Amino acid sequence: MTYANSILDLVGNTPLVKLNRVTDGIAATVLVKLEYLNPGGSSKDRIATRIIDAAEREGKLKPGGTIVEPTSGNTGIGLALVAQQRGYRCVFVLPDKVGEDKRSVLTAYGAEIVVTPTAVAPESPESYYSVSDRLVREIPGAFKPDQYSNQNGPLSHYETTGPELWRDTDGRITHFVAGVGTGGTISGAGRYLKEVSDGKVVVIGADPEGSVYSGGTGRPYLVEGVGEDFWPTAYDPDVVDEIVASTDAESFEMTLRLAREEGMLVGGSSGMAVASALKAARSLPADAVMVVLLPDGGRGYLGKIFNERWMASHGFAAAGAGPTVADALD
Ligand code: PMP
């Protein structure tokens, strides 16, 4: 019989797929790594096991304990998967820009959620960082993984994502592109790729325009899960050769194209990563092999990026632009 002993054994080893249509006019091979095929639906499944294992080992998390974390959703799902198996309670703090669908997924996995306003400074008592700190103080046996500073995040990508990229490209990867949120993915996988290639793999961070990584102040943008208004210690700037920024409009347009033209229903940070990657890929030769990591799937964004009314109300072009059968029948 072939089966996994637990859902957690299915984390990682996600496939690479070549982009064929959105890469029109680009000579290099551009591959994407489909992290939405992880059991919890995102790259964050990878960091959860390592973070919880380490907390148990270090005595920070004891039987019956509670995991408290500010998370845009995906880290919560990963943590909830592990917590569920080991009998921990989970309380997640979310900014209010996180969609209803993503919130429901967290509660479906048995987690409790607390929603906080996006448009306040990080040091405000209402900010999602402050609220989570207060919950950690008030809940007995609480453990805050803190994905922004926990080095087990980047380490999980150093130990799994990086080696998978090298193995699955037979060591031919020349460029690695990932969106930067906590910075864990790019720092961990990027560091592995730098080491194994003697510094040859070029590591490119993709960032929403306005975020600190591309020189902004953290002005609110609509793409979720990437960009910051501060510098997390999970991010190692020494690993990153270049940052390429994309606007919300560019990111959402590419997200829609990935679904329509490549058959990949992915989230806005994936569209952002591809939009930024293709700007860099335009100047690359035919023998370059670029891999872009796509962090999560599109189902958590059906009411936003994939909703014509939501897109139009924020001034973006929607997917359904152009004449339809319904128009012809009117
Ligand atoms: N995209 C999405 C949808 C995410 O949830 C995250 C994690 N915050 C990222 C990208 C960025 O990954 P990292 O935190 O490893 O930089």
Q: Please, could you describe this protein's structure?
A:
The chain has helices at 44-57, 74-86, 100-108, 128-138, 152-168, 184-196, 248-262, 268-281, 308-313, 325-329; strands spanning 16-18, 29-34, 66-70, 89-95, 112-116, 142-143, 175-179, 202-208, 242-246, 289-294. The protein has 330 residues and is an alpha/beta fold. Strands 1-2-10-7-8-9 form a six-stranded mixed sheet. The protein has a four-stranded parallel sheet with strand order 5-4-3-6, with helices on both faces. Helix 1 (44-57) crosses helix 2 (74-86), helix 1 crosses helix 5 and helix 5 (152-168) packs across helix 6. The longest helix is centred in the middle third of the chain and has 17 residues, at 152-168. The chain starts with 15 loop residues before the first strand and ends with a helix. The model has no long low-confidence stretch (mean pLDDT 94). Bound molecules: 4'-deoxy-4'-aminopyridoxal-5'-phosphate.
